[in-house]
Amino acid sequence: MEHTFGNLRNGQNYELYPVVSLRGSDMLVTPQAGHNLELQVSSVAASSVTNSSAVLAGLIVDYHGSMAIDSYGFSLNGKDYASNNMDSHGRFTHKIESLQPSTDYEFMAYVIVNGVRYVGKSVQFRTEEDKFHYCPDDNHPHAIDLCLPSGTKWACCNVGASAPEGYGNYYAWGETSTKSVYSWDKYQHLSSWGDAVNIGSDIAGTQYDAATANWGGPWHMPTLAQTQELLDNTTSVWITENGLYGRKFTGSNGYAVFLPAAGYCSCRHEPDELGQLGNYWSSSLDENNPLCAYIMNFYFGDVYCGVSYGRVDGLSVRPVR
User: Fold this and answer.
1) Are 321 and 220 spatial neighbours (Cβ–Cβ below 8 Å)?
2) Phi, psi angles (nearest 5°) of residue 131
3) pLDDT tens sequence across 5-15
């Protein structure tokens, strides 16, 4: 004899055995069999793929809300990324960031129920080519349009650098040339009684601007507002470019600039914390403490704007126009 059962649920265990009715009594007949209706997981697709990120989607087929799900997410190139946004239809997604441009990736959606891991078939995708490399030639600098609200364009490299990943030169705030010692007694804008000389609350485009002095107008040091605009309107990731660490800032149009972690010079010309820290001058003075000016500061974990920093140290300069 045979019978077809309907309305069974994925991921549920069922016991099957025949029943014989004899003279009004039901008897359970052996042998009995167990059957696990295996959970079906689908690796749907990768969407919103950029040069550094992608949104992965998965699905539990014939999902029902009573499933005892331990966890779910995606395995990308052997590494698990948990998700937490499953909807009432069993669909779930997760955005993966810090991917490398022009790279092939493979992922599988997974769901763990009662300690058992179920996976979907593998799906491949490729990240976009990195538009950061689209400088038209090696005759740097180039003005990179990051689609910022003000229309400000950021240079592709630091003052003194010959490539986007180059560290470039180090300047004390308000000085336009490098030197062997960065100390208060060697600072050009210190009065005889130990106070900083007032050279203006914003030196962008003036004779004290290292960008304008070395590259000419309309290049100038970014103001505090322009550095904040960069942070507010781009995505930032810590990457390596030609073996050097730094942060890549990508605009909504896909174009990006790379700022190397060039460290800083304090008391001597040899920089400290190379490859670990990036300190970039703005043109804005800290008027509450005139011995300091504002910088953009970053490391592998995060990036900050509006940090007040002593004017005497040698920091990087990334021009804008």
Assistant:
1) yes
2) -70, -10
3) 777 766 666 77
